């Protein structure tokens, strides 16, 4: 009588496929690795050199995901950009502290290993790391049948950066009469997608047949690392904020000192078509400002004398412009006027 043989593969986990994926990551990661860097992919942990030119170095760490934007990727069967989003969501937070991104790790959990899908995601992650001038040093891929439905997955990213003690951007550097400067976003970035998906469902909109939405909904998040590091190295900013969930008000409030307040003129904000489209689909101004970046992906706090110098570090597509000012008053953000959604 034959006994039934139980194997890991029969339970839904394919170790050979996972090994092939690790080999692929090693190949991708090694392409631009310098001779002095450690090779980490496939090991138990990553080892990285600490730059020797930073005085009194401090480590800064961030983690984030891309939320339900992955459901749009699944819907459109397009996975080559969400890896960029994953890197952006962490490194754009690191630079708010003044830290230069050093290393990045990813975590991918999936129902069943799909090499084509995972390779596309990793290529995006590597591209995001290149844009951030940091190194992909490792990660984890977990095949979890029963936890995720067929075709479903999630991703998370972990970034570590370094900053000299005297270069840390803290609240104390922000002063009365400093200007609040907006840097345009590339689009939605990675926030508000649960509301977008709910709207699409209620309106019965098929994004596969909508050329505009098909293009807009998977636009990768702008990575601001190179520009912001240049500003920090040239002592041109006193503070900055990554505009993610919670919008302008919540994110700027996080960096304002207790005795100061930020006044923002909403009529100065330059929106893009995707936000105008959302506004036209029965979303209130309050909800728009609370959920989306509304065209402002990042904010700087600086002195007026630095504006021209700051502008030189940005391409025309991402030229900074003034939207507000710092005043005396208890820590709060005051939004004045209203956004012109049809400019």
CATH class placement of the largest domain: Alpha Beta
Topology order in helix (H) and strand (E) letters = HEHHEHEEEHHHEHEHHEHEE
| Proper CATH architecture of the largest domain | Alpha-Beta Complex
Strand order of the largest sheet: 6-8-5-9-7-10
The named CATH superfamily of the largest domain: PurM-like C-terminal domain
Shape: globular
How would you explain this protein's 3D organization?
This protein has 343 residues and is of the alpha+beta class. It has 2 domains: 15-32 and 55-165, PurM-like, N-terminal domain (60s Ribosomal Protein L30, Chain: A, 2-Layer Sandwich); 171-187 and 222-336, PurM-like C-terminal domain (Phosphoribosyl-aminoimidazole Synthetase, Chain A, domain 2, Alpha-Beta Complex). Helix content is 31%, strand content 22%. The protein has 11 helices and 10 strands. It has helices spanning 15-30, 69-76, 82-94, 115-132, 193-203, 211-216, 225-233, 247-253, 273-279, 285-291, 307-311; strands at residues 57-65, 100-110, 135-143, 153-164, 179-184, 239-242, 260-265, 296-302, 321-328, 333-336.
Task: Describe how the helices and strands are arranged.
Blueprint lengths: L14 H16 L26 E9 L3 H8 L5 H13 L5 E11 L4 H18 L2 E9 L9 E12 L14 E6 L8 H11 L7 H6 L8 H9 L5 E4 L4 H7 L6 E6 L7 H7 L5 H7 L4 E7 L4 H5 L9 E8 L4 E4 L7
Parallel strand pairs: 2-3, 7-10
Antiparallel strand pairs: 1-4, 2-4, 5-8, 5-9, 6-8, 7-9
């Amino acid at each position: 009588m034959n006994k039934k043989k139980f194997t890991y593969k029969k339970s839904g986990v394919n170790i050979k496929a996972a090994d092939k994926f690790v080999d692929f990551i090693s190949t991708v990661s090694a392409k631009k690795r310098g001779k002095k860097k450690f090779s980490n992919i496939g090991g138990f942990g990553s080892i990285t050199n600490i730059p020797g030119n930073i005085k009194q170095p401090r480590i800064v760490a961030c983690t984030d995901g891309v939320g339900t934007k992955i459901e749009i990727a699944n819907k459109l069967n397009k996975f080559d950009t969400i890896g960029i989003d994953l890197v952006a969501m962490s490194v754009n937070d690191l630079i708010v502290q003044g830290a230069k991104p050093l290393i990045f790790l990813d975590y991918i959990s999936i129902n069943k290993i799909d090499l084509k899908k995972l390779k596309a995601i990793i290529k995006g992650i590597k591209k995001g790391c290149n844009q951030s001038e940091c190194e992909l040093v490792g990660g984890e891929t977990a095949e979890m049948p029963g936890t995720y439905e067929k075709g479903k997955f999630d991703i998370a990213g972990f970034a570590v950066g370094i900053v000299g003690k005297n270069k840390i951007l803290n609240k104390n550097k922000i002063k009365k009469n400093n200007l609040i400067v907006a840097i345009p976003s590339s689009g939605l970035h990675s926030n508000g997608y649960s509301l977008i998906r709910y709207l699409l469902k209620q309106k019965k909109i098929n994004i596969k047949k909508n050329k505009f939405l098909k293009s807009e909904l998977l636009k990768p998040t702008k990575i601001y690392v190179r520009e912001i590091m240049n500003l920090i190295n040239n002592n041109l900013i006193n503070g900055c904020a990554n505009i993610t969930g919670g919008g302008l008000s919540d994110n700027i409030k996080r960096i304002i000192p207790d005795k100061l307040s930020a006044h923002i003129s909403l009529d100065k904000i330059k929106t893009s078509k995707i936000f105008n489209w959302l506004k036209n689909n029965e979303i209130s101004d309050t909800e728009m400002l609370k959920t989306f970046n509304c065209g402002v992906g990042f904010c700087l706090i600086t002195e007026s004398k630095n504006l021209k110098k700051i502008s030189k570090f940005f391409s025309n597509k991402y030229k900074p412009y003034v939207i507000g000012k710092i005043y005396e008053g208890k820590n709060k953000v005051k939004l004045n006027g209203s956004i012109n959604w049809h400019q």
